[in-house]
């Protein structure tokens, strides 16, 4: 992405994660703008504060339940709902960048979802509304990958024919970097693998 990314975004990116869109609140009444960074793996909501402080909410695509997008005459608005029911809202976003961002989110959700996602779209003369819904019963393709790592950790002998411990450690790190498993889950599973060596 050609735009300069704020430090609060770049320091929270994993490995080779790439920011595809950076949406910023257009009204500058606040000292620091709120932003949504759409990456190739997740959505980052950043509420930047003074003196280098910020609040960050990371939502991997696998954990999204619903994304609402409203575009009006002047600006756009996003409302993101996670599987656990948490909501993040950001309004007064640029229209054209927001439209590209909702397309990116739709494509990312379709890539990981086993079942097709639900799309409600309402276009009026001067406004547009999208609602993307991931079915509750859907299992993402990446979650299947996580399950295979978990099951391969059970009853593994030192002469594992299918995957070496090093390969499984790399796969585990990918899952952590993509935000699929937490840091605690990563450390617990990593330690089990290291103990097998």
UniProtKB/TrEMBL annotation:
UniProt feature, compositional bias: Low complexity: 149-163
YokE-like PH domain residues: 15-106
Pfam families with a match to the protein in the record: bPH_3 (PF14470), SHOCT (PF09851)
Lineage: Archaea, Methanobacteriati, Methanobacteriota, Methanonatronarchaeia, Methanonatronarchaeales
Name the record gives this protein: Pleckstrin homology domain containing protein
InterPro entries: PHb_sf, SHOCT, YokE-like_PH
Location of the SHOCT domain: 167-193
Region described as Disordered: 140-168
């Amino acid at each position: 992405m050609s735009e300069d990314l704020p430090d609060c975004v770049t320091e929270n990116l994993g490995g080779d994660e790439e920011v595809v869109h950076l949406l910023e609140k257009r009204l500058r009444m606040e000292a620091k703008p709120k932003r949504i960074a759409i990456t190739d793996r997740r959505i980052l909501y950043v509420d930047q504060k003074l003196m280098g402080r910020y609040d960050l909410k990371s939502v991997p695509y696998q954990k999204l339940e619903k994304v609402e997008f409203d575009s009006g005459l002047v600006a756009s608005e996003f409302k993101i709902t996670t599987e656990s029911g948490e909501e993040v809202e950001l309004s007064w976003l640029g229209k054209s960048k927001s439209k590209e961002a909702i397309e990116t989110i739709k494509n990312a959700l379709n890539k990981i979802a086993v079942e097709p996602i639900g799309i409600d779209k309402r276009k009026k003369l001067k406004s547009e509304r999208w609602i993307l819904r991931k079915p509750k019963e859907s299992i993402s393709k990446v979650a299947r990958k996580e399950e295979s790592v978990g099951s391969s950790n059970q009853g593994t002998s030192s002469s594992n024919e299918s995957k070496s411990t090093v390969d499984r450690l790399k796969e585990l790190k990918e899952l952590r970097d993509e935000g699929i498993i937490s840091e605690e889950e990563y450390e617990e599973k990593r330690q089990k693998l290291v103990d097998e060596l």
